[in-house]
Amino acid sequence: MKGLASASLSSFVKLTLLLMLEPGPAKVTLGAALQALPKNAREGDEDKGYSFVHCSVTGTGSGTFLGRAWRAAPKVTFAYTEMGEVVKPEGWTDNNHPEYDKSVSFGEYKNTGPGSSMSKRVSFTKELSDADAKPFISLGFIDGSKWLLPPPTPKVRDYRADWNLSVNQPVAGNYYPVIFLTLLNLGIFTSDNKSEFSVLVDRATGGSSIQDGQVEMMLHRRLLVDDGRGVGEALDETVCISNNTCQGLTVRGNYYMSINQFGDGAQWRRTTGQEVYSPLLLAFTHEV
Predict the structure, then answer these.
(1) What is the pLDDT of residues 93-111, one digit of tens each?
(2) pLDDT per residue as tens digits for the range 123-170
(3) pLDDT tens track for 13-64
(4) Separation between Cα atoms, residue 9 and residue 64, nearest integer Å
(5) Is the pTM of this model over 0.70?
(6) What average pLDDT does the chain have?
(7) Cα(208)–Cα(221) distance, rounded to whole angstroms?
(8) Calpha distance 146→93 (Å, rounded)
(9) CB neighbours (10 Å) of residue 56?
(10) DSSP per-residue string spanning the chain
(11) Residue among 85, 86, 91 nearest 108 (CA)
């Protein structure tokens, strides 16, 4: 996590922190890696902070601080986060600098789980009100409107947001690429006022909803003759084996489908997409 040292303000959403601790005294502090002020920060360089929203802190053992103060005025907030028993009841530490107790900003807001109890938290922990938490749980905390790409515009049949569309190709004009996990595109879905039907793919695919309540996918397009649409040749890719026997190219793919209540499909697409395309990678290290 050393790359975070150059960050100014960072926000983490739906991040899982899995900690595996050895028995004995506390050896891990989230603040050691995800600290409000990096250990090598310059004096006066205190416009840095971290916000964790809808995250999970879990693992084995116990004795983890949520953060510690390397400088006088660090900022760390945990909101709507599930905290396991791995978190120390004290929650935070001033890193043996009691003079920092009045200037640190260690905040918690509507967290859950056994590690979220405020009853034994250190005195300088701030239990945030709705108004206090608001700046930390929105993209405004990291000036997201200045650098984050806007969400993709939903595709609507026979409609373009930036010009008046004259429909003369009702099928081809409504086909779109369905990509298997990019920043702007994750699967395809259709919905009514009660349900959402979603499909995730594992390779580039064409997709559309030509009629209400239907989704169609084109994994591979093969034509034996030129269709006169500008390519100038038949889309007839073949595979030839050793005895000069050739056959049409076969493309296979996996489809992941789900039916959810209206409004819940996006969570399934994002969560399942990350599980399928970015599986958990286990790594082990040892102290030197």
Answers:
(1) 888 888 988 888 899 999 9
(2) 999 999 999 988 888 777 777 767 666 666 667 888 887 788 888 888
(3) 666 666 655 554 444 445 433 433 334 444 444 556 888 888 888 887 777 8
(4) 23
(5) no
(6) 77
(7) 14
(8) 34
(9) 17
(10) -GGGGG-SEEEEES-EEEEEPPSSS--EEHHHHS-SS-TTPPTT----EEEEES-EEEEESS-EESEE-SSSS-EEEEES-EE-TTB-TT-EE-TT-GGGTTT-EEEEES-BSGGG--TT--TTEEE--HHHHGGGSSGGGGTHHHHSPPPPPPP-TT--TTS----S-TTGGG-EEE-BS-SS-B-EEEE-SSEEEEEEESS-EEEE--STT--EEES----SS--SSSS-S----EEE-TTS-EEE------EEEEEEETT-HHHHHHHHHHHHHS----------
(11) 91
Here the tokens at position 90 are 């004290």
